[in-house]
Amino acid sequence: MFLNFLKSLFSLDIGIDLGTANILIYVKGKGIVCSEPSVVATRQDRSPLAFGAEAKMMLGKTPGEIKALRPLKDGVIAYFEETEEMIKYFIRKVHNKHSFVAPRIVISIPYGITMVEKKAVEDATLSAGARKVYLIEEPRAAAIGAGLAVNEPRGCMIVDIGGGTTEVAILSLGGIVIANSIRYAGDKMDQHIAEFIRSEHNLLIGERTSENIKITVGSAAALEEELTMDISGREIVSGLPRNISITSEEIRQALIPPVTNIINVIKITLEKTPPELSSDIAEDGIMLAGGGALLHGLDVKIFQETGLKVRIADDPLTCVVKGTGKVLETLDK
Description:
The protein has 333 residues and is of the alpha+beta class. The protein has 12 helices and 18 strands. The chain has helices spanning 2-9, 52-56, 80-94, 115-127, 138-145, 186-201, 207-217, 248-254, 256-271, 275-284, 298-306, 319-329, and strands at residues 14-18, 22-27, 31-37, 40-43, 48-51, 66-69, 72-73, 76-77, 104-109, 132-137, 156-161, 166-172, 175-182, 203-204, 228-235, 241-247, 286-289, 310-312. Strand 7 and strand 8 (76-77) form a beta hairpin. The longest helix has 16 residues, at 186-201. It starts with a helix and ends with a helix.
C-alpha cells in the first residue's frame, strides 16, 4: 500500500490510444507527448529489441534471428507479451525512463470486443506498471476528442477509421446509443492495394509500400487532378526487382471493397438510429476521425452515398488520444 502511494507521487496519469497502427500517449497536464507506430522488434528468445518507429523500419527487412511485428491485430491484442513490453516501454519513455512509476491509465478499446479481449488489454496494461486502468470505447473517446457535444441531449455521429477497426457510433447524453464496429479499416485498404498490384501488374510489394501508396495516391472519389506514383517491387515470374508507375484511378479501383464496407456500416447504423436522434444527425452531419479519414475524397463519397454533410476532425489522427486526455482531466470528479 505504502509502495503504491510512493509510486503515485512519481507518476503522471496518462491516456493511451492503443491502435493497431499507432500508439499515442497523452500525459495529464502536458498533452500528447508520444506518437509512434505500434510495432515491436524481438530477438529469437522473444526479448524486445526495438519499439515504435525504430522497429517499423525493420518490417520486412529482418534476418532470421530478429522478428518485427505488430502486436495488435484488428484492434485487439494478438501477442500479449509483446504488447505488455511495448506499453511498459512507452510508459517509461514518457516518465523519462524512471522505473519507479505506477500511473493511472485511461486506455481506448474498440467497441463491441469480447470480455476476454477487454481483460487482455487491462491485464497487459496492469502488467506494464499501471496502478489503475480505465477502459473507454474508441468511438466515445474519438467523439470527445473531436469536440462533439456528447453530453448534450442531442444526437451526434462519429465515424472513427483506424488501422484495424472502423467504429461508427451515435452518442447522446454522454453515452453510446447505438454503435457498430467492423474489422475493416486502414490495414485492409493496404491489403487490397497489395493484392491489386499483384493481380494487375504481377508485382509483389511490402506492407510499408502499400501504406505509402494509400497515403500518396489513394482516393475514394474522383480527384480534380488525378495522380501518378512510381513504385518498386519484386516481379512474380522472374523474381527480379522492377519499377512501375501507378495512377490514382487504379488505386481507387483497388479500394472499392474496403470503402464500400465502411459506407455500408454507416448506413446500417443510421437505419437503426431512433427518429429523434436521426433528425439531429440530418442537421449536424457526420464527423470523421482516425487515420482513414485522411483518405482523399472519402468525405465526398460518404456524402454522395448518404446525403449527409460530412466533416473531418481538425486532427483526425489524435482524436482518440485527446478524448482519453479529456477523461483524465476529470477522473477525480
